[in-house]
Amino acid sequence: MLESGSFSSFAAWRQDRRERGAVRPVAFVPTMGALHQGHASLIRRAKLTEGPDLEVVVSVYVNPTQFNDSHDFDAYPSSHERDLEVALEAGADAVVFPRADELYPEGVPQRADRVNFGELTSLWEGAHRPGHFDGVVAVVRSLFHQVQPKWALFGEKDWQQLAVIQRLAELEFPKLNVVPVATMREENGLAMSSRNARLSHKDRSQAGKLHSTMLSVVRSTEVLNAVAAAKLKLEKCGFELEYLALVDGISMQPSLRPKASNRLIVAANFGGVRLIDNVSLGDS
Asked: For the whole model, what pTM was predicted?
């Protein structure tokens, strides 16, 4: 234990629980650090999961196996003290900074074992970031084994990742409740992300057009036509689109018949930063 509420390993956290005789169920918020108010919203939501008789645990670990670009991994921000402050202020009972050998006992692999959840892992992020979901599943599986939570909370900003983790839980952790939490946004609508800190002040202001354009699509009476028009609009605004698509909110397959359960998903590079977002067809 580093200081009150902070642990340098899961082993230290579990030892502390044994010494305290802790039997409270755990609501778990896994993160890769650089915590912001979006993460804080997950922690606050965790506190409300089942009254006061639970323990909210946050982990901070930048997982190398989910980065298909080593430069992106190297550039990922790190702020240990700030992360601890944000987590504890939001209501975390424990913040764990696990060791790599706890999550990867045989050593961090150069590439995680391949995961095949069909189109759920092969489309969109799966196609544009080869190996990404392999790494996500590897580390989340290990985290779940380490923590044995009753609930695990994930933000809806990474919608496809959320769907992948829900499938993992269904297959391997049937007693675990995966709790989605709505995306927190900046004043201009930009989805909160640790990557936003890499945008210039001007680009960060302009990046809000991504969300406003997506809202114009889902409010349209001709959604599919609006998607095509939105692509042109975003490209004119300087966004380099990887995809902008209407999909089924569960299977992530492309949808040609708009319905309330659809999501509009996007990945785009802007100002040298890769941004992802999504909105429901029911958003307004």
From this structure: 0.95
